[in-house]
Amino acid sequence: LAEKKPKVVFVLGGPGSGKGTQCAKIVQHFGYTHLSAGDLLRAEKNSGSENGIMIQNMMNEGKIVPSEVTIKLLQKAMVESGKDKFLIDGFPRNEENRAAFEAVTKIEPEFVLFFNCPEEELERRILNRNQGREDDNIETIRKRFKVFLESSLPVIEYYKAKGKVQEIDAAKPVEEVFEAVKVIFTPKVE
Ligand code: UP5
Ligand code: MG
Fold this sequence. Notes:
The chain is of the alpha/beta class and about 190 residues long. It has helices spanning about 20-30, 35-45, 50-60, 65-80, 95-105, 120-130, 140-160, 175-185; strands at about 5-15, 35, 85-90, 110-115, 165-170.
């Protein structure tokens, strides 16, 4: 009954916009726990779970895995961490993700961090990454970007209408982006 609700910040932005990079820095400076939905799905795929093939097929097409799968992984990670301040990176990616997360967890984000970056820069970054991600090829990158525009931007618009979006110019160098991020996370003294 007196259950304490965790604090959540959603970290959104196109593929390669620097969500993972900036989350790692936020963790170091502000003591959040970073949960990347994409990383959780990749781990689930590699664990040989019954959903593995489905997850792999969806990711290789840049498609959004059904909410129930992703939400279960997020909830499990939140509980197992024992922590109460989370950066949820790369989720919710569509309206269905958003509505289902809210319905299942009853959690509303404190705010949404949106890393805005043009497509050419995203492509350049991902093609330079070389970490062996199966979805880091030009065809899949373009599909990921298209899904971002069609499905994920509406989620950002939804939160914008609620005054919850903190938008950041993510085309700048990593340290400059982090300077802007820091301002948002630093408590304001009246
Ligand atoms: N880099 C970072 N910042 C830079 C900067 N300011 N200047 C220059 N270079 C910069 O960065 C990408 C690369 O750019 C790195 O090499 C970095 O050094 C450099 P990174 O921090 O990794 O960016 P990020 O936004 O995290 O990119 P990522 O590729 O992880 O984003 P995606 O949103 O595409 O990937 P994600 O893992 O979230 O999702 C993958 C797939 O999983 C989705 O396409 C989907 O199929 C599936 N998925 C779901 O179905 N549901 C979910 O809820 C989540 C994922
Ligand atoms: Mg990432």
